[in-house]
Amino acid sequence: MSLVIAKDITKNYQIGEVVIPAIRGLSFEIEPAAFVSFIGPSGSGKTTLLNLVGCLDKPTDGHLTVAGADVSTFTQKKGAGFRGEHIGFIFQDFNLLPVLTVYENIEYPLIMVQNVPAPERRERIQRLLDAVGMLDQKDKYPDQISGGQKQRVAIARALVTHPKLVLADEPTANLDSKTAHTVIDLMKKMKNELKTTFIFSTHDTKIVGEAEIIYVLEDGQLVSRNVQGGNNNA
Amino acid sequence: MRNLFKIAIRNLLRYKRRTLMTASLITIGVVFVLAYISIAGSFKNMMVAQITDSSLGHLQVHRKGYMAAVESLPLNMNLKPRPYKILEDTLKSQPEVEAYSPRIRFGGMFSNFVETTSIRLNGVYPDREFKTTPLLPTRIIKGEKHLNRGEILVPELLSVGMGVKPGDAIVIVTTNKDGSVNGKQFKVSGILESAQGPGGRDGYINFEDAMEVLRMEEVEVSEVAIRIKDFSQESAFTKKLIGLLGKELNQKGKPIFDVHSWEKLSPFYNIAQMIDVMSIFVKVMLVAIVLISIMNVMIMAVYERVREIGTIAAIGTLPKKILAMFVIEGFSLGVLGVVIGNLIGLSIIFVLNLSGITFDFGRQTGLILRATIAPLDVVIISGIVILISVLASLQPAWKASRMEPIKALRHV
Ligand SMILES: Nc1ncnc2c1ncn2[C@@H]1O[C@H](COP(=O)(O)OP(=O)(O)OP(=O)(O)O)[C@@H](O)[C@H]1O
Ligand SMILES: [Mg+2]
After folding, report:
1. Using 50, 70 and 90 to split pLDDT, how confident is the model at A229?
2. What's the pLDDT at B362?
3. Which residue lies with its CA nearest to atom 26 of ligand 1?
4. Residue A168: which of A85, A92, A66, A96 has the closest Cα?
5. Interface probe, candidates B315, B326, B398, B407, chain A, greatest A C-beta count within 10 A
6. Which of A32, A36, B193, B288 is 20 to 30 Å from B223 by CA-CA measure?
7. Residue A180 above 80 pLDDT?
8. Residue A234's pLDDT is what?
């Protein structure tokens, strides 16, 4: 079964009397272990869509199923529980907790969100620190490491709970292009190792080529679906 | 839980100056309250002890109606032998009673053979009176610290006004309850310093001398002063005694006795109560300080960390965990203030006692201030501050826990 199934979803924002349609009738399916990118100009609805798929927001209309659950039925508490269980997040601004070390930031979801026993915690964190190449920096605080390093820690934090799906809204927007490539490469490597689905958005055409499936968004609508190798199913 | 504390404490350390300022505000509040309560409380206790131990006793029992007419010291309102026997038997069987002293109170004329003035006198059994009001001997500022048959302790004001000194002979003239006048010569054994409260300016003679000068044929008692072993049990014992003596009725079916605790007898009780009210007021101020400062800091903390809250909420931290995180932060801040406040406050009390500050009360001078505070008071004050810290962080913490992650994440 597909991990994400979107059927005719729309999302309107209401500001006072004005209704702003951000997503207008999107339908798509994303398979497990896929490496998917949404690309589109500013205001095309990428963030809005990722928020919906990430169960942070509910569609105005249509059906959205993530990991078998109907997103529109979630309460605040249920949504939080579901995200903690199944979804990892990587943010544009890294969003590491400044009072925690690199190690503790990766540990956070295992203690505060899930309840993983200490020995397993240590093992998982150690393995991920190694995989993202941050083992020697593990006792530093976020303000003592570079942006690229922060995003690598964030990737480790997103993966440490063994989620089915990792969402990254413009994960490379605050990085230089060389670092951006290494971050995307790392995501891809982790996807291959752990079989986790990655969905990221970007408007950077240079890095989008790394994705296996590329959805192009414009004005809240899908304009094309490109599978690496040249298939165009839009 | 340990991790919630770790995060809370790291966040407090993150804004060191602000944390320190808030904690010191709480500290100052706690120190002030501790110092105030200990000094005011000790002052009050000492004053009460001065009053009860100098002349009043802890409780007094009279014949019903005596107190209403006490200004004229009526002789026809005394307890007759039979009711006095009942009273004595009751008091003897009470384990709480340390001592009691029967008194004959009356007014008369005091003459030094040149001049005459009025005087109020207590006829007492000196050893029993000294046990019931142990500060009485210390009030004898001149002369002997005893009171034998034929001797009189003269109040200081009178001795000054009449120019009498220990060893002088004086005459007491009085009218008994039948209206016949009688006089008796006494030797001044000592001069008595005035004390606060009713009876504080009265003279003392022996009980038998009083009976003689009043031509009493049988033992009559105007009042019985009682001292109990544990003063903190005073109101409980008063209640008990009222209950016991209330059962004793005269032929007309009316109660015989009237029991009064020192509070009812001394105007200082109102001041003592004021001190207690002030203590409550000071505690309320402390609560306000803690409430406002913790709430202020926690509102700031939540506002500054909106994006962090958005992040942890997005990655699945449950609202109640976020709530706990901020409440624990406020709690820790309160504990920090309380711990430092207690350390400083108790040191101040310790130093105050070492330095032996003295003060005057009425005509008593050089009383040494013993600042003490009950451990229970310290625990209660600390508990209140910590509780208020938690309550004050609840609202900001609740707000944090209810934040929508996407809105919080977009916050700049
Ligand atoms: N909270 C909101 N309230 C009202 N309108 C919003 C809100 N969030 C987004 N929009 C609007 O919805 C549309 C899509 O916005 P969205 O942020 O999803 O675009 P985006 O593709 O992520 O853009 P960018 O590349 O700039 O991040 C835009 O027109 C935007 O103005
Ligand atoms: Mg966006």
Report:
1. low
2. 61
3. A42
4. A92
5. B315
6. B193
7. yes
8. 40
Tokens of residue B187, six digits: 């030797």
Q: Is A149's C-beta closer than 6 angstroms to any atom of ligand 1?
A: no
In this predicted structure, which of A87-91, B266-270, B278-282 has the lowest mean pLDDT?
Answer: B266-270
Choose the closest CB to B3 out of A54, A82, A112: A112
A43 CB within 6 A, ligand 1: yes
Q: Is the pTM of this model over 0.90?
A: no
Q: Is A13 in the pocket of ligand 1 (CB under 6 A)?
A: yes
What the block records as the tokens of B337 is 């203030």
Ligand with the closest atom to the CA of A203: 1
A31-35, A201-205, B99-103: the lowest-pLDDT one? A201-205
d(C-alpha A29, C-alpha B324), whole Å:
38
Q: Judge whether A163 and A196 are in contact, CB under 8 Å.
A: yes
Going by the DSSP 8-state scheme, the letter that residue A161 receives in this structure is T
| B411: number of Cβ within 10 Å | 14
Helix (H) or strand (E) holding B132: helix B126-132
Residue pointed to by tokens 């009176």? B129
CA distance B153 to B146: 9
Q: CB under 8 Å to A16, separation ≥6 — which residues?
A: none
Question: In whole angstroms, what is the distance from residue A11 CA to residue B361 CA?
Answer: 80
* Beta pairing partners, A227: A213, A231
**Spatial CA neighbour of B159 closest among B212, B112, B226:** B112
Q: Is A145 exposed, middle or buried (0-12, 13-18, 19+ CB in 10 A)?
A: middle
Look at chain B and count its residues.
412
The two structure tokens encoding residue A146: 């570079």
Query: Which residue's CA is minimally distant from atom 29 of ligand 1?
Result: A43
Is residue B177 within 8 A of residue B199, CB to CB? The reply is no
A202 touches ligand 1 (CB under 6 Å): no
- The closest CB to that of A113, out of B308, B317, B406, belongs to B317
Pairing of strands A213-218, A221-227: antiparallel
pLDDT tens-digit map of B346-403:
888 888 888 877 777 665 666 777 777 888 889 999 999 999 999 999 999 999 999 9
Q: Which residues pair with B80 in a beta bridge?
A: none
- Indicate whether A231 pLDDT > 50: no
Asked if B316's CB is within 8 angstroms of A83's CB, the reply is yes
- d(C-alpha B344, C-alpha B339), whole Å: 9
The CATH class for the domain spanning A34-60+75-233 reads alpha beta
Contact B171, B108 (CB under 8 A): no
> Which structure tokens are listed for B10?
């790291």
Both tokens of B53, joined, read 């131990």
